[in-house]
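Q: Hi! First time asking for a complex rather than a single chain. Here are the components, and I think there are three in total. Is that enough to go on?
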Amino acid sequence: MEQFISLTLGGVVNGSVYAAFALALVLIWRSTRIVNFAQGSMAAATTFIAVAVIDAGGSYWLALVVALLSGLVMGALIERVVIRPVEGGPELNAVIVTLGLFVAIQGIVALVAGVDERAFVPPFSTVGYEVREGFTLLSLSRNSIWTVGAVLVTMLALIALFRFTRLGLAMRASAFGQEVARLLGVRVGRMLTLGWALAAAVGALAGMLIAGDVSFIGPTFMDTLIVFGFVAAVLGGLDSPIGAVVGGLLLGLALNYVRGYLDDSLLGMAALVILVVVLLVRPGGLFSTTAARRA
Amino acid sequence: MSETQTPTGDPGAASDAAPTTATAGANAPSAGAGGRRSLLPRITLLRHLLVLVVGAAVAVLLLESTELNTNIKLGNVAYLAIAAGGLTLLTGLSGQISLGHGALMAVGAYTTALMLDVERSEEPPSLALVFLAAVAATTLVGALVGVAAARLHGPYLAGATLALAVGLPGLALYFSDTFNGEQGLTIRPPERPEWFTETVEQLSGATGRGLNDKWVAYIAVACLLISYFFLANLMRSRMGRTWRAVRDQEVAAELAGISLGAWRVLAFVVSAAAAGLAGAVLAIVVQLAAPGSFLPVLSLSLLTAVVIGGLGTLTGALLGSALLVFLPPWLIDLGRDVFDMEEAQASQSSFVVYGLLLVVTMLFAPAGLVGTIRLALLRRRAARALTRSGRG
Amino acid sequence: MTRNSRRLVSVLAAATIATSMAACGGDDDSDGGGGGGGGGGTAEDNEATGPGMTEDTVTIGSHYPLTGRAAPGYSEIPTGVQAYFDYVNANGGVYDRQIEWVYRDDGYNPTNTSTVVRELVLEEEVFAIMGGLGTPTHNAVLDFLNTEEVPDLFVSSGSSLWDDPENLPYTFGWQTDYESEGKIIGQYIAEEFPDAKVGLFLQDDDFGEDGERGVRQYLDDDQIVEVQTYTSGNIDVGPQIAALQASGADFVLGFNTPPYTALTQLAARDLNYTPQWWYSNVGSAPDLVGSLLGAFSQGAVSGASALAGIYTTSYIPTVDQVDDPWIQLFQRIWDESGQEGVLTNTRVYGMSMAYTMVQALQAAGRNPTGDDLVAAVEEAGADWQGPAFTPFRYSSDRHAGISGMSVVQFNAEGVGEPKTPLLVTDTGDAEIEEYDGEPIAPPESGIPDEEAVG
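A: Yes, that's all I need. Here is the structure of the assembled complex.
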């Protein structure tokens, strides 16, 4: 029972981390119908920028702000320079562009920061809550509460943005019907850029949260997250911020049970099984907004 | 994607032919093996046979005129190209994406390793038999995956196949008694026959050291030629046209009685068979089947080869695979020898340049290498025709 | 092709002559009069004997993960090797030959290893491979190197795979194998902590398995209360450490890589779990782990003392032993080499191995073939002394490396203090014995001086 509780709580924390990553993917999918494989190395890059700020004597919070801002800039730049020309073209071309970016950015991070791992101290204590002597819940620490909380707040903020603001409405319009949006006076191009910028900022947040969660970071520290974050986003339906978070939590829980009761090496297989089962029932993911496609 | 549609992009023809091809598709395996002639226009088959013969001649020339090390690299190109060829059929023709073909290669490689794993004193089973078994095993796995994949689209399929790429190699760790975990199964390379040693000596005077690697390279290239011959015929056949219809004209195809799901599964099965053969070839080239060889990056590389080369053509898949094998080491050499970098720095920089090259290619040659060249030729021809008509 | 093959023919011929000379294994013009850059012969006597061995150079190659997930730490090894070879070259090289050190990145992917090692052998024409890193990676080239008769010295992994002279006559291990290490650890715990409830934390490959096999030879099954494994790449070790805690283990022994030492320490701290810790040699890397953990102690304690009280094993000197003459030598050589970064344990590892390589080249004689090099290691290797605490097990029947280690505990300053004399043992049911020799100080010149065999 104790193991189950700690695995469940651990699953929630890991799940929020996947969810953070999935949120960034969902934002980009919503705005440009592209799966951004470069998300992982973009987030690694912004996290290393944050580390540079901390090394220079800045606080974690200053570093976080810098990471988010550099995410915004990086996202906007990438959309304008390399994504714009392939938008609306064959979807595989966009996939290859983001794969190319993934490889290139990771290489640049390694060249600048070196390949060695380094410590990343999270903002809050990671010491677990001691239920009783000899039984501590590792996942119930101040830092894990911050991680889960930050993801939930981000999700709510994104929902609010899309539901209740003119800007959010314009972004949604641009994503769903460019021509109509244009007729209505929305500057579609600008909205797409904003979508990427926002996504990269969320990705930067994810990077910071993940770095705090894993404690040690290197240029490749986001690699495993790319796969599980992507799976979480797909589980959720790719279109919905709530879906991303639910998908992330579901995946986090399932994988933690597998890790606890079976074996580490089956994590990938477990993700596959969950994904296939969910998609066979709902081919558009749990929170798909479009009608399920014909089989 | 666009250029594959042009030559046969006649949806009417595809739907007309659909009822017959659908039945032909049901007995596709036997059709592929024996009754191909009745399905294919004779002229196509002859043309492909001719290409096969020329390809074989070029391959021998290439293998005999290059250094042994290049021979081995050509072996690497061969197995990547076989898998990429299968993926071309799946992605270029049937319109499905797969980020998990590396895992299917693992099935082929492990089957090969297990079958060749006999005592040194014993005679291993014949290579042809082993390869057939590898293809059969992978086809089976491919059919399983294909059934699930047929119901999924775009990013959902991408996500599921990516999970496959991560998940399947994990089984080698979990069942480490059979698959020997992380350190993998070593594979004794096939012994070269006496006639090969003699022939090669007469051809290029090569003797002694490394001849076994040469023999393996020959096997790899032979497998490439044979599999491309099959794939080319398949893509040009009515089955190929049906797949295009399934991709481009879902509704029309369905109205014409084509079962979209069955055809998608079939495409997955065929491409899985290619991946299985590729894995078997990889196994004898690398002489090891280990999880570390089948990371998701392999699957992503295959997709890269297919798109960079020019989606939908086997030539493109071959070209893209060659690029994968020859470009990174060339970039590393460049960094080390010309820019005087440390090995680690040169290696890391090669990734940066490689990644940027992918981006740039997609921006300036969106149809891939083969597609772009074709387009340029077409344009020039059109321009020439225009000036001629202007003059006349 | 033809240029290449002609050269290959001459090598084969040379190799045949060498083997037909049976045990003496030396060319007739090889001098018996000591190495050290030229005793018993002059540069004029140098001859090219085949690939990688020209009149004035000898080329040694290797493969390491320089990029990707396995790169941290390991990518430093070849820079250590480079520093030592540079030092030897600056002092005249070996038999007036400059050592050329060519290494390639394989990203820890066996497919890449297979390609780059063939490139090293066929294109760069190395004389020998030295220190190829990793079990799955090197496993992919064993057959190739042995078929092509390329000396495959000193694989950088403690797997027992490399000690198989019958099937792999050209391959040699170097570091103490994981099973012997497990035995020494197991015996120490059984004797000194008979009441400890031991939990094992293992990497789920040959590293963890061989180590566990050794440990279980000395620890009863009921003294080992829990076994947890991890798959390299999965960085969340919380569940495993929680399970060890829940099992009541008060002594945790890890066969894991350095990042996992840091991860397990952090997870245990967050769980208020304070067992006695022991990390096998691979995972202890106090400099690396200390720098990782130091950041988390928020200045309360220094990084090095994060490992205070922890046990490990040792078979070559480590950088915390600033008074050790070998470390002083390597520090001097590293500083002179002008490469970036500081002297680390991984660089000491590379330099120590390079030292053994120079011994091997000296013992092989002035104009050796690959077979001469292999014969020299088999014949003389067991007598070589160097940075390694205990002798190598090399002979014509055995290709296993360093035979033993000592048990070490880190004190509050992060310096390892020996808890046992030097212990030697072997795989299987070989006894653990005290080593009766003494570690030696490095020669004045910092370069070995082995006599040519044969």
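A: The longest helix of chain C spans residues 2-20. Let me know if you'd like any chain examined more closely.
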